[in-house]
Every structure is written in structure tokens, then in C-alpha cells.
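## retry 2 of 3
previous attempt timed out at serialization; input unchanged, resubmitting
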Amino acid sequence: MKELLEQWYQQSGQISPVRIPKLDRKRLVQLFGEHGLTEGAEIGVDRGRFSEYMLKVIPNLHLFSVDPWRWKLRGESRYNSSVRRLEPYGERSTIIRKD
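## retry succeeded, writing output
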């Protein structure tokens, strides 16, 4: 992964943050998987859809899904949705909620 980042820096001539054209977050997750990423985090999980995507795409990933889920009316239902969605991934998924 370090080599890939160094390559992007060299090719772009930019300083941090490097903007990479035509690279969306789903493609970035695919690249992480191709380069052997085994641990990651999503900050701001909402319903857990993108956390689920990352766990599907990267088979050996251990993911920390972090969100306070504090919204008065929707927070609890979105937290519960995340728990249900990520439950099949067992120990590969760690949900962190700050109460």
C-alpha cells in the first residue's frame, strides 16, 4: 500500500491531500483489498451499508465501524440497522458507539 501511495504522489505532483481522478470510494476499497489491507475503519456509519460493502469486498478485513448514533428520532433505528447488517461478519466487524 505504501508503494501505491508513493506512486500517486509522484505522478500527481501534488502535496497532501492528493486528488486522484476517477477514483471513488468503492474503487478505493477494491484497491485496498488488492494491496492486502486487513484492518480499517469507517467513521460515520449511519446504517452500515458502506461498512458492509467493505467487509464483502475485502475477505480478510477486520473493520471498526464508529458512529455516535445520537440523532433524537433516527439514531437508535440506524444503530440497530447497522448491528443487523454487520452481524453476519462476526468477529471481523467491531461496532463502536459513543453514548
